[in-house]
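COMPLEX REQUEST
Ligand: magnesium ion
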Amino acid sequence: MSLNLANISVSYPDTDAVKDVTLEVKSGERFAIMGPSGSGKSTLLRAIAGLAVMQSGSVHINGADMTGVPAHQRPVGLMFQDYALFPHMAVLENVAYGLRMNGVPKTERNERAAKLLELVGLAGFAERRTTTLSGGEQQRVALARTLAPSPAVVLLDEPLGSLDISLKESLLAETRSILEAVGATSVYVTHDRAEAFAFCDRMAILDKGEVVRVGTPDEIWRDPQSAFVARSIGQSNLVPHSMISDGGAGLVFVPLEAVTMSPSGRFSAPVTTSRFEDGSNIVAVAFGVEGSSLEMRAPLAATPGVEVRFDIEVDALIVVSANEV
Ligand code: ADP
Ligand code: MG
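STATUS: Structure written out below.
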């Protein structure tokens, strides 16, 4: 079930939340939309679901124009950021809710809901109140509820937002395989680059309501095309190419592995900070454009202000943009 968004704009009185967004999500694809808080991610999902008024543009699902189709008649499932479970209903009723709204008879909808609870690993939870569930269990109920009516397109808005990190990793992998099992076409919205990368086949990066880059994680990593995209995906070691290579132009990303501290190094700069992370010392030096720093792994912690020498492996650099800013 494909999803086509063409020239979508959504404005509020004070903000142009979504600006001229055009995207194509293929049938069965896991697509991520990543952007900082306030970049228009939730608004875009709401527009797809028919819950936000678009100033312009169109949504097509499997070729069908959704213009004028009210939210409850669109073949989409939206999983909200805060799950929005019904506290006065048991787990099974929550999951069966969409089917009830669609007029599916009780026996049939309860059977379907029970199957989905099994799929998300909550087989024994049917009669529990949602208020007695842990964050991770609530997430699974919300996912089961979203999938119950077999939507053509599943929209997930920061589905792991408030969970702790270790739970996030396992639930992300599980969410991924559940969506795969039901053959869903999905759009996963997050501000978290690790989540987006781990989830998706392809992704779009949003900046202030605009799509600034679309591609596979690998394509975007190797060719971010702007400093904003590079920083969004975690390429923080950005340096003007001309400082490293004669004749080099634009801005480059220097992977941590490409920098080696060495007494005979070609480059020299003063230490700004030193910290211990993931089993090694990370030393930052004042190198690059004014005010920016370059990080490297070091055998020992270093004292701020001390001058250190280092080498940069030029073959490992990634050219980020044509400009130095
Ligand atoms: P994100 O989900 O990426 O954090 P949102 O889509 O929630 O971003 O918001 C995008 C912009 O639109 C923000 O500036 C936000 O303040 C504004 N916005 C969102 N919803 C509304 C609303 N109902 N009324 C007015 N402004 C809104
Ligand atoms: Mg949001």
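REMARKS: The chain has two domains: 3-229, 236-321. Residues 41-42, 81, 157 surround magnesium ion (ligand 2) (CB under 6 Å).
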